[in-house]
Design goal:
The chain is an alpha/beta fold. It has two domains: 173 residues, D-Maltodextrin-Binding Protein, domain 2; 137 residues, D-Maltodextrin-Binding Protein, domain 2, CATH 3.40.190. Helices cover 35% and strands 15% of the residues. The chain has 15 helices and eleven strands. The strands form two sheets. Strands 1, 2, 3, 4, 10 and 11 form a six-stranded mixed β-sheet that branches. The protein has a five-stranded mixed β-sheet with strand order 7-6-8-5-9. The radius of gyration is 21 Å and the shape is globular.
Length: 371
């Protein structure tokens, strides 16, 4: 997901398997075998070092030191605020001096298409067996060939029924709000999520590149703008807590930050459906420390490590073993944590827009600048 994500609950809310699936194209004897890995499973990791770029507070602070103690490989962590920022770093030079990067799925897809990502060697990441089978079926990277999923979720409506007077069920409750809640709703300004409510309301794909459809999306968003309190990608849940807003567009985990402060706040996926976003871990092709990079990803996939994401930043992870470790009371307090992989996959997966990306940027600029 593109987002400025200081998402750990302590910072945000409270003060704020699968192995690689290789698609067979037929049973011909002339079929070329898959290329063998050139990585050394017996490499001395103490002779390697890693630079990892992640969103701040998106993994345990002490994880690098724990990894260093166990494997001897030094780990330096650098931070990026958005997907666009890290993609800019990775594409600005042939050697960005980053070994592992955390990026959202559609951005990983775009990086791979530019030849910037190493192919994942599942033999060096045995903990991929902890992932749900559905985690190898994601549209941006079927079979986890160049990425390993870290967290996933969806987008919906976060609201307080005591302020709305009703339980929202449709994106139209946000796009064409009742008079009682006009001026008390917020939407996201980030391009893909700004478009999403109108796309789903109009029956379009969240990945549409059809200019006529996107013109209708733009018209709807411009019509909605006067009814909004604000475009807000980061503090919308705080506006619910304070009562300044009564209904907001929200990522599921960020809605949980509001629920942590006020249990009157609820989350719902509208009847028209929504997106499935995934944040991933990728290894750069330029990395000279690929064995250590694979081991770092494998370390994160240990259930006792990966479960930290759920317990501390209130996002679901595609790690079945980690989710099974979660205290049931956490799901009771934050019901969207109980969404199953099958329920998530009912939503539409975000993929790279390719050459159509500038169209979304142009519309987002036009909408947010409209009077």
């Amino acid at each position: 997901m593109t987002k400025n994500r200081s998402r750990r609950l302590a910072l945000a809310a409270l003060t704020l398997t699968s192995a690689m699936v290789i698609a067979a194209c037929g049973g011909s004897d002339d079929e070329e075998p898959a290329a063998e890995s050139t990585l050394d499973p017996d490499a001395d990791l103490s002779q390697q070092s890693l630079v990892v770029s992640n969103w701040e507070a998106y993994m345990p602070d002490d994880l690098p030191k724990r990894f260093e103690k166990e494997f001897g490989a030094d780990v330096e962590v650098t931070y990026h605020a958005t997907n666009e920022e890290i993609v800019g770093k990775l594409t600005a030079t042939d050697n960005p001096d980053i070994d592992v990067a955390f990026v959202s799925g559609q951005f990983a897809q775009a990086l791979d298409e530019q030849g910037l990502l190493a192919q994942i060697d599942p033999e060096l990441i045995p903990n991929m067996s902890n992932l749900y089978p559905e985690a190898s079926e994601l549209a941006y990277d079927p079979g986890n060939e160049f990425s390993v999923p870290y967290a996933w979720g969806t987008t919906g409506l976060c609201y307080r029924e005591d302020l709305t007077g009703f339980e929202p069920t449709s994106w139209n409750d946000l796009l064409d709000p009742k008079p009682e809640i006009e001026g008390k709703t917020t939407m996201m300004a980030t391009e893909r999520w700004l478009m999403l409510p109108a796309q789903k309301s109009l029956g379009f794909s969240v990945n549409t590149t059809d200019e006529a459809e996107m013109e209708q999306v733009k018209e709807q968003l411009i019509a909605t703008k006067p009814t909004l309190l604000a475009y807000d990608d980061t503090t919308f849940y705080s506006r619910l807590v304070s009562g300044e807003a009564s209904l907001v567009q929200a990522w599921d985990g960020w809605c949980n930050y509001g629920i942590a402060e006020d249990d009157r706040i609820k989350f719902v996926v509208p009847d028209e459906g929504s997106d499935l976003w995934t944040d991933t871990m990728v290894v750069l092709e330029s990395s000279e420390n690929k064995e250590a990079a694979h081991e770092f990803i494998n370390y994160i996939l240990y259930p006792e490590v990966h479960s930290w994401v759920v317990e501390n930043i209130l996002y679901k992870v595609p790690n079945e073993s980690a989710m099974e470790m979660i205290d049931p009371s956490l799901v009771k307090d934050y019901p969207n944590l109980g969404m199953t992989p099958a329920e998530l996959l009912e939503q539409e997966e975000l993929v790279d827009l390719g050459d159509a990306a500038p169209l979304y940027t142009e519309i987002a600029t036009e909408v947010t600048a409209a009077n």
